[in-house]
Amino acid sequence: MLVLGLLLMAGAAAFAGLLIAYNLSGGPDYTVTLLGSEPFTVSTLGAFLGGIALTLIFGLGMWMLLAGTVLARRRSRKRRTDRLAARQAGAERDVLADRLEGRDDPTATEPTEPAGHRRPSPHRPGWLRPHGR
Questions:
Q1: Which of 23, 28, 46, 73 could form a disulfide with 42 if both were Cys (CB 3.0 to 4.6 A apart)?
Q2: For the chain, what percentages of helix, strand and coil (3-state, to nearest 5) are there?
Q3: What is the predicted pLDDT for the residue at 52?
Q4: Which three-class secondary structure state does DSSP give residue 39?
Q5: SS3 124
Q6: Residue from 73, 65, 59 nearest 2 by CA
């Protein structure tokens, strides 16, 4: 939807730009020249309605572009929350499995690092991690 909206916008803008560039002469009836050919003659009302149609096509393309970005953002946010929920469920499953197998070690719950020290997350690059770990 994102690409289709972008194509509609670009096509409408290019067509309108070419029509304006090639048809700067005036008169009651306009002979439309487009890329060296004269496909049709249009009246003032026809030119006005053609402009309205091009504007509507451009607006439709813009709407499709914006709707596509909103959908993509919503999908990525939902995927992110689903991954977090799966990670939490897996951690809870592992804790319960350890309890069932009798490996309930009270020392494992004690922090191995001093309080206030933040362990670097694995997704951060090395130069951002504290003390180069």
A1: 46
A2: 65, 10, 25
A3: 86
A4: strand
A5: coil
A6: 65
The first and second tokens of residue 31, run together, are 């002979």
Q: Which two tokens stand for residue 71?
A: 């959908």
Q: Which pLDDT tens digit goes with each residue over 61-86?
A: 888 888 888 998 999 999 999 999 99
Tokens of 34: 């487009």
119-125 contacts: CB < 8 A, separation 24 or more?
A: none
Helix (H) / strand (E) element for 30: namely strand 29-34
In sequence order, the β-bridge partners of residue 32 are 40
pTM, two decimal places: 0.48
Window from 25-29, 73-77, 117-121 with minimum mean pLDDT:
117-121
